Amino acid sequence: MKTTYTISIFTTNTVGLLNRITIVFTRRRLNIESLTVSETERKGVSRFTIVIKSESREFVEKLVRQIRKITDVLAVFGYLDNEIVFNEIALFKLASPSGGKPIDAKAINLDWNAKVVHFGMDYVVVEKNGTEEEIGEFYQYLKQWDILEYIKSGRVAVGKTEKGLVEYLPEGNWEIV
Amino acid sequence: MGQAQSSTSEIEKNRFLTGAQAIMQSLVEQGVHTIFGYPGGAIMPTYDALYDYQDQLKHILVRHEQGAGHAAQGFARMTNKAGVCMVTSGPGATNLITPIADAMLDSTPMVCIVGQVKGNLLGTDAFQECDVIGMTMPITKWNYQVVDPNEIPDVIAKAFYIAESGRPGPVLIDITRTAQTDVMTVPFSYEKCNSIISYRPRVEPKKEHLQAAADLINAAKKPYILAGHGVLISGGEEELKAFVEKSGAPVATTLLGMSAMDADHPLFVGWPGMHGNYGANVLTNSCDVLIAIGMRFDDRITGDLNTYAKQAKVVHIEIDPSEIDKNVKADAPIVGDAKATLRALLPLIEQKDRSEWRKEFEKYDQEEYEKINKKELFHEGNQIKMGEAVNMLSEKTKGEAVVVTDVGQHQMITNRYYRFKKANSIVTSGGAGTMGFALPAAFGAKVAVPEREVVAVIGDGGFQMTLQELGTIAQSGLPVKIIILNNNFLGMVRQWQELFFDNRYSFVELQNPDFITIAKGFGIAGHTVKDRAELSNSLDTLLNSDKPYLLEIVCEKEENVFPMVPAGGCVTNVRLD
Ligand SMILES: Cc1ncc(C[n+]2csc(CCOP(=O)(O)OP(=O)(O)O)c2C)c(N)n1
């Protein structure tokens, strides 16, 4: 049974670092399920959130140590799903030609906790936040319309801990953004 | 107005260094005095700056960039300081790839300064452009592209700190031509780097980890120490000796850790691994506590991990945390520098006599001696065996030379028969097993420690991979002693074909050149010895020469190296013939 792991990597903001990090995965023939990079509340610190699936916790622990070894990496944390609050965001572009099946904006909003964020000439764009499963179910629901385009972000996640992860970064004169 | 402006910029030009000058000045202030290099278009501005720095920076012109890299490695292994090499972009840089990969695997500090095309040409497939940063990312400890001359002092300082601290390794700095020619807009100032926020190698071990390890060791009946390269890198030979003697534990050294213990020390039991000693391998699976110091449980040492030291509790002292539990699970891991850790551990260790356990190695040593050494050292034939040549070399140099080996049978034989008496005396390519390593590495080592006898032992195959560096050696005049153990085969591969591929010799026989004529062509004297009776005199000639010298020793063609633990096998399953 494969378990999902979310790896949060804090790094200094350096050109080419994404490459250095993904090499660690490639060398071990590990597929990255999703990847998100963003700035953090500390200036000059980036945060990579990488989701992987693995059968072996030990394998993931070794991977985490290999990532931590990269010179520009400040800290690495590995999580199971129950240890984090996480979400993804999806956008659906649905065809809505005149005379076609009308889009049920109300159901989308109330039943599915999603919203229509753009009305085009012959199409609408619907946005849905949620877990991968929730977005998957919503996708099934939307299939009654013609889905012109579907895109989903990688996972973002924060740990279920009292302190923010940046508190665990090495001590330094961090500037708060 | 116009005139006034141009004169201020004149003044500024004089005050502010160009990027190329900044590179030179940074190296000088870092304390570098030797550079191994090869010029070309993209690094020419820096070579031009070097012209004015010749009395402060000794530049050695190699014959191939691979030679520069291995020479820098040999230099680094002797000094424990980063070896520096400087090459041009494109092919200059790609020729450095092998030494960089080698240095990464063997934890050798190296700083490579590489020219790059002009900043505005980056990414355009310009002449001699290649993505060196991308190519070397997996094989460097750190790499960085400089496009702004102002960055140069700090980047170079950081490069040396990263290369030399923690677990050492190669660092590459890719510097665009424009960053070399542009003038800095700030005054030059150089400050050595000694900390980086994202990189904090632990030198001093944690107290609680020490106690846990000491408890295991003190309770052990049969503790067994495996000492690796980390002991030599940290300069911890004295600490190792004290630890060995107090604990009374037998000690083996890995291929790269060789010479960390005096070969004649009563507790020294040789080396473990594929061609290591019989007892050193077999008893790995009899010890109750295995104490690994500054080593990484390479597969050439462990063989099959599923049967490796399963009965033992493992104490693992290692500076690189990612090595802990990577191959062998540690019961008592200690992250720290080998020297610092051994020093801190010593007071916690009880003085013990474990000579009964040490004795268990003797019967294996005896059997190995009877079945292998005796045949190789005291045979009747006329033909020279590699073992006796190395044994004689060891005796004649009193075990005190710096021995540099290439890769193959002769490498294993050299480590079997050379009895190292002095620390930091082996330079060999272990992790990567790079043929062609020895000649340039021996040269680099000699540059670093000219007062020591440096002997390269090379196979006839490997010699032909970097023999152009004979030119570098001749030009330097340094008395590097070169031995070719010529068996007319790619011996190690032939051995595998004989043993594991049914004697099917597939492309392993060489038609060799006349090595002595080649050496002569480069201005290096030498001779060939075929007759056993001449071996001793021949080695004397080699060792007594005050110039570089090449001795070709024609050896038995189809000798095999034993003992041997077949690849992926169990360490108790040792073939003696
Ligand atoms: C660059 C490189 N290519 C290929 C090999 C594979 N290899 C390992 S040992 C060996 C044979 C070496 O032959 P030689 O240099 O004559 O030394 P010998 O084993 O005969 O002592 C080869 C081809 C290697 N280690 N390095």
TrEMBL record, chain A:
Enzyme's top EC category: transferase
Catalytic activity: 2 pyruvate + H(+) = (2S)-2-acetolactate + CO2
Domain ACT: 6-87
EC number: 2.2.1.6
GO CC annotation, single: cytosol
GO BP annotations, alphabetical order: isoleucine biosynthetic process; L-valine biosynthetic process
UniProt feature coiled coil, ranges: none
NCBIfam families: acolac_sm (TIGR00119)
Protein's name according to its UniProt entry: Acetolactate synthase small subunit
Organism: Sandaracinomonas limnophila
Automatic annotation (TrEMBL), chain B:
Family: Belongs to the TPP enzyme family.
GO-annotated biological processes: isoleucine biosynthetic process; L-valine biosynthetic process
Pathway field: Amino-acid biosynthesis; L-valine biosynthesis; L-valine from pyruvate: step 1/4; Amino-acid biosynthesis; L-isoleucine biosynthesis; L-isoleucine from 2-oxobutanoate: step 1/4
Catalyzed reaction equations: 2 pyruvate + H(+) = (2S)-2-acetolactate + CO2
Pfam families: TPP_enzyme_C, TPP_enzyme_M, TPP_enzyme_N
EC number(s) from the headed UniProt entry: 2.2.1.6
Gene: ilvB
Annotated GO MF terms: acetolactate synthase activity; flavin adenine dinucleotide binding; magnesium ion binding; thiamine pyrophosphate binding
One cellular-component annotation, GO: acetolactate synthase complex
Designated name of the protein: Acetolactate synthase
InterPro entries: Acetolactate_synth_lsu, AHAS_TPP, DHS-like_NAD/FAD-binding_dom, THDP-binding, Thiamin_PyroP_enz_cen_dom, Thiamin_PyroP_enz_TPP-bd_dom, TPP-bd_CS, TPP_enz
Domain Thiamine pyrophosphate enzyme N-terminal TPP-binding per the UniProt entry, residue ranges: 18-134
Lineage per the UniProt record: Bacteria, Pseudomonadati, Bacteroidota, Cytophagia, Cytophagales
Entries under SUPFAM superfamilies matching the protein: DHS-like NAD/FAD-binding domain, Thiamin diphosphate-binding fold (THDP-binding)
Enzyme class: transferase
Alphabetic keyword roster: Amino-acid biosynthesis, Branched-chain amino acid biosynthesis, Magnesium, Metal-binding, Thiamine pyrophosphate, Transferase
Transmembrane segments: none
